[in-house]
## 1
Amino acid sequence: MIGSRRIVASSRRAVTGDRGAGSVLVVALLGAVFTMTAVLIPVLALLPANQAVQGAADAAALAAADTASGLQPGVPCDTAGRAAELNGARLGACTVDGLIATVTVSRTAGLLTIQSSARAGPAP
C-alpha cells in the first residue's frame, strides 16, 4: 500500500504542473487570430477600390478612343479626364496613337494611391 500511495502522489503532482496550459494555448491562439484579422481587413478593403480604379481607367480609355475615332466631339484626353473624374479617379497620363488611346488613372484610398492603366481602340 505504501508503494501505491507514492505512485498516486507523484501522478497528482504531474497533473497539477500542467494545469492552465490549455488556457494559455487558447489565449495565444485567439491573439494570433485577432492579429491576422487586424492585418487582413485593411488589405481586403482595398480590393473593391482597386476594381473601381480599373473601371475608371477602362471608361476613360473608351471615352478617349471614341473621341479620337470621331464618334464624339472634343479632345480625346480632355474627354478621358472627365470620364475618370466622374468615376472618382484622376487622369495621370493619356496618349493617343491614331485611334488607340492609352490612359493611366489613380485614386487615393486611405494612405495608398492605387493606379491603373487601360487601352482602347477599334477592333483589330
## 2
Amino acid sequence: MAEIDVENEEKMTFGLAAGALYVFFGILQALASTGLVDIPLVPGNAIGVLVLVVIGAVFLFGYRELKEGIPEGIAYIHVGIGLSLVFGIIYLLVMGADAISAYLIRSEDFEDWSIIDDVRPELYLALLSLIGLVKWRDEFSLKGITISGV
C-alpha cells in the first residue's frame, strides 16, 4: 500500500465526510418519500434520493481508492464535487423559477409558496463541495493545457 500524503489524506477525509452526508440525506429523503415521516428541509422525492445516493457513492468510492493507496481516487472526489455543484445549481435555478412564478407572475399554483419550500439537501450539501472546489481550485484549472493536450 502506497504512503498517503497530507493532501490526499485531506481529500480522503473530505470524500468520506461528503459521501456519508450524501448517503445519510438520501436515506432521510427516502424516509420522507414514504410519507410516514416529515423531516424539515428534506422533502420526499424519489429522484432526489437517487441523486443523493449516486453522488455519495462517487465520494465514497474516491475515499476507498485513496485509502487503498490508489491516487486515481482523487478523480472520484473531483467528480463528486462537480456533480454536487451541478445539481446544486440546478436546484437553485428551480428555486429561482418558482420564486418568479410566485412573486412576479403570481401564479395560483404558487400562492402559498415560500423559499423554504424549495430548500433541499442538494442545495446545502453543494456548499460543502464549494469549499472543496475553493480549497483545491488549482486542480480544477485548465492552465497549461493546450489544444494538442501537451
## 3
Amino acid sequence: MASKNEVTTEKIEKVYTLDSSSAGEVKVADDVVASIAALAAGEVEGVSGTTGSIGQKLMKSVGMKSGSGSGVRVDIAGNMVRVDLALVMKYGYNVMETCRKVQDKVKSAIENMTGLNVTDVNIRITSVTNEPRTDK
C-alpha cells in the first residue's frame, strides 16, 4: 500500500489481442491505434493536425502543429474499430474532399498495420488555420 506521500503512476490502458499462436501473443494498446490514426490524418494535405493530447504530442514529435481540444478516440470491439477524429484544417482546402482523403488514409493505415477492421472514421472539424496552401 502506498503511503500518504507516495504517488503511484500505474497507467491502465486497454490492450487487445490481435493474434495468438504457438510463438506467443500479439497485443496492441488502444493508444497505439489512436496514434496510427493521428499520424495518418496528419499526412493528408489540408490537415493542420489533430486536436487533443494524443494528437498534439504526435504532431509535435513529427514536426507538425496542432491545436487544442478533444483529439483522437478509438473504440475497439473484437476486431472492429471505430475512430473519432477532431481535426484542424488549413484554410483554402475543400473540407469534404480533404475529410474523404483522411477517412481513406486512416482506415487503410489501421487495417494494414494492425489487421483490425475499421468500421467508421468520424471527423469533426474543430478549427481552421490560416496556414498557406502548400500545393499551389
